[in-house]
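User: Can you help me understand a structure? I only have the sequence.
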Amino acid sequence: MKKTPSGPMIPFESIFMAAPSPFLILKPDPPRFTIVTANDAYAETTGKSREYLTGRGLFDAFPANPADGEANGQERLTASLNHVLRYRKVHEMPWHKYDLPQDGGLFEERYWKPINQPILDEHGAVSYIIHRVEDVTEKVRAERDRDRFFGLATDMLVKMDFDGCFLEVNAASEAILGWQPHELLGQSWAQFIHPEDLEETREQFQRAVSGEPCFQYENRYRCKDGNFSWLSWKTLTELEEKVIYCAVSDVTQPRRLQAVTEGQKRALEMSVHGDPLPRILDLLLRTMEENSSRGVRASTMLLNPDGKSLFSGAGPSLPPEYLEACNGIPVVPYAGSCGSAASSGEAYSADDIATDPAWEHGREVALRHGLRACWSTPIFSTAGKVLGTFALYFDQPRHPPPQKIQLAEIISRTAGIVIERQQNAAAKLLVQQQLIQARNDAEAANVAKSEFLANMSHEIRTPMNVVIGISNILSTQETLTPSQAELVSTLQTSADSLLALIDDLLDLSKIEARQVELERVPFSIGRLLAEIVDMMTIRSQQKGLKFFSFGHDNCEDIVVGDPTRLRQVILNLCSNALKFTDRGQVAIHLSCEPSERENIQDVTIAVTDTGIGIEASKMQTIFQKFTQADSSITRKFGGTGLGLSITKKLVEAMDGRISVESTPGQGSTFTLHVPLSLDTSGLQKVALADSPPPVRAIYTGDRKRVLLVEDFEPNALIAGRYLRVFGYTYDVAVNGREAVDRAKSGDYFAILMDVQMPEVNGYLATKMIREHERATGTPRTPIIAMTAHAMAGDRERCLESDMDDYLSKPFRAEELMEKLAAVASAS
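Assistant: Let's start by predicting it. Here is the structure, written out as tokens:
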């Protein structure tokens, strides 16, 4: 110990041993660097005792890991110690990898940050070296994990300074923009922005520099190929570091889908207003081109009336000379992309026109105008008839990506609607000119209106069903705040009302067009009425009314008729009774009496209420279209006045009649008389009305994962929502090839397989999955066909393709639930 000028002796050795940082004292005897001693912290950090270390060479005590030659830890440490001996100055090393030896010849991965300091004698020579280390293993591992996550992220992760220059960019930049990270580092964001977005982006950047966070801002960024992608930015500013952290998502496809949807809407509006077909097709094609990359041009070809050749429908960006050359393309295989697609009924892609065999006769004119690749798909009518083709041309050899094919198929479906509507209108005009010349103007206008309503209702039903399905899921399966529940209830009520109106308009148009075909199936009138009573009892209780029923337990005969239409009639009468009754009750009476005619049952159903009643002067008009007993009723109770008109026409189609008795202020009684045949076949299979019950339960077993294979995004959205409601997790594959890859790598308890998809269809995908299961011994995964193919024989074809079950579109939620529940039960 040494005495200080101010007092007691200081135990330097004790201080060295108790120091919290790991220390060694080394002799300056390279290359051995003998260990003189080690403090307790060093022994604890390395797991080597002081007795073991003392007297050993540094690299004898800690030999290098022979399996980790790239780390060069021993060489770096030796160089640092020699630097201290040469310059007699402290040398601080950057962190480096030097694994610790363990028993059995093993090594533990460790990272260190050493500082080597000389101890000089009175002559200035190095007598010892103090070797201090900091174990930075956990820090290095954390940074390494961060870098790995940084590289794995599918969104762009960006760090930029307050000058707008990129400091760090992850690998997702190449997938999204085509730029590799090193190509962006040091560059300013301003040189990549679309000119139209520059000013607004500059303002947004200044807000970020001031510390204001951004949760969603969208602009267009230039890709490496010269195209622009839509990006959505979220930012977080660190004012002390003067950096901005950004998470950037590619929203190009949603943006394009939105633009295409708007183009669809405009095209349908133009069709309704009677705009010329070439102008409508021109709009659709420009919508496609504006939402594609540079060098993409679109065209439509229409099928000649003889069905043997195609002629140009529209091609706003293609040279007129080329369009003229396309007129008369035969509908046969190997007649270019369009002729081949129209002939086969499937998409045809010529990825390189210069070598594609189908382009032997059109190759020269296409290449002369800079057309190097062409993808074409048939345009179908609602009945599946080929109306023409939709094509995409590219200025470079390539195969269109799935996103472009998705947009093109949406546009082609809209084109099919417009073309079919135009052709129907033309055919209708011709028929009217040839066959309906004797009809008066009023009847002609009525038929035209009905057909128009039928077409429009068909176009509106699908999105309305989506709205109703989502609102039902929200209202029955989600936990909502009172405000949200009120909004969803309002949405659901409005959607139900609109769909009911559309159904009424469709029924009316079918009736007036004489297109209603009544079923003749056996059913129990008593059971039918019991189902209606159950439903109406709940609705009446919600309104504070009483609902009574009489007679349905006494009618046990099986009759033959149309239970769906009869149910519609009775529900309409009961719904009206509830609507116009604020106090009291509603009752339904059923009686069945043998008719004078053989094997005929006279069925009488009376619906009585204690509501507002009907004035005698209005009794003769309530069954007319768009008429109610009083205009004030329309304002108070709503409705269009179609329900009773449709009810009367349906009853008359059943050879029945309907009558009404009413007293204003006391109530009304609607009485329905329908003759129904008795079932004499002896069969016990009884049809029930087509009235799917609401989904009341969900799958409650273990949460299982489903693979949803669907190339059309709206269908995938609805099916996905149903799966979540039922308690399943799921992945989505947008084509058959992706489905096969996911099925190989994922653990799915069921696969919902679309059939008609690009690249690989559902049949081939199923075959490939089954072959993989057999080859690898993997347990068989149930595959359920979920397809719009609902014609006779389609179910059998799916099962013959080694699928396990079949579900036709459109499907009800409970049908999907039952299919999956059956799979879960079997497993």
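Now, to help you interpret it: Residues 301 and 436 are 33 Å apart (CA to CA). Residues 1-10, 631-638, 687-701 have pLDDT under 50 and may be disordered. Let me know which part you'd like to focus on.
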